[in-house]
Amino acid sequence: MARARRTTPVSSRTVTRRGRGIRGPLFPHDLPARKSRAEKFDLLVLSAFAPIDAQWHDRLTKLDLAVDDVPKIRARDPDSVNWPDEVVADGPVPLSRLVPAGIDRRGAATRARIVLFRRPLELRAEDPDDLTDLVHDVLVHQVATYLGIEPEVIDPELGDLGDEN
Asked: Which of 1, 98, 103, 138 could covalently link to 86 via disulfide, CB atoms 3.0 to 4.6 Å apart?
């Protein structure tokens, strides 16, 4: 005996109503697999900044950290780009920027801020350890620029960033 075909299409509502849908989250909240790439990068930045902050905390109290996905600044001529000291770049692509303290459009005072650009940094790293080293080097350069000292004072073992500036 042949079964009759279903006349109404199966929807997620009917599947869930009959108890065959997803019953809970795929990963528990405390597992690393639950975190997005952006959240993992934020944690990486905080862990790379922790030793710098521990050493220079008294002078970094008015400095904020921020992460953007992509830079909103662009070189007009990528062949002959000259970035200011506030920008750490790999050729024509900025990796981070130091935004000095100032006054915003409404007249309110703003704090100095280091902005790291997540996608350019991730694309230049071959593996997670390389990304950790790259983020550390960029943070050291930006903190040194903020403090007005040489990067080697902050981290004597600092490696070369390559095509910086």
From this structure: 98
Q: What angle do CA 157, 163, 165 make, to 5 degrees?
A: 95
Query: What stretches of the chain show up as alpha helix (H) in DSSP?
Result: 12-17, 37-56, 118-124, 128-147, 151-154
Summarize pLDDT for 30-58 with one digit per residue, the tens. 766 667 888 899 999 999 999 999 999 99
**Residues 6+ away with beta carbon under 8 Å from 55:** 154
Name the pTM for this structure: 0.74
Find the distance separating the first CA and the last CA of the chain, reported in whole Å.
Answer: 77
Sign (positive/negative) of CA torsion 29, 34, 37, 43? positive
Distance CA 17, CA 35 (A): 29
Token pair in block for residue 76? 């007009």
